[in-house]
Amino acid sequence: MLATLSDGEKSIIAAMNSSWPDAPHQRCQAHFLSNLSEVVLPLDTKLRQQLKADLDGLPKVPEYSERPQDPGSEKQQDSLPFFQESPICHETQS
Asked: What digits encode the pLDDT tens for the residues 72-92?
């Protein structure tokens, strides 16, 4: 046996250790995280409720641009790419 894997049940770990004493044992990470989340989840829920209450008082984000747009321009300022390619980067190698 190369290794053993189980949840945190002590009797299972003891049985595997007696059957395969030289095989290293690892606790199942899914079980470990699940057990950890049982303690954290109520605190996280309370924090999310407090954040929601705090953020509900902020003004809503508008669904349109507040920046005045030039009606004659083809591209609006908001639609320009954030990064633009530099013509210097287009060197060809011989």
From this structure: 655 555 555 555 555 555 444
- CB–CB of 16/26 below 8 Å? no
SS3 for 4?
strand
CA–CA separation, 44 and 89 (whole Å)? 48
Q: What amino acid occupies position 18?
A: S
Total domains in the chain come to: 1
Domain ranges, residue 28: 1-54
Burial of 83 (0-12, 13-18, 19+ CB in 10 A): exposed
| pTM exceeds 0.70 for this model | no
How many helices (H) and strands (E) would you count in the chain?
2, 2
CB 29 within 8 A of CB 52: no
Structural domain includes residue 79: no
Beta bridge pairs of residue 26: 5
User: How far is it, in rounded angstroms, from Cα 80 to Cα 73?
Assistant: 12
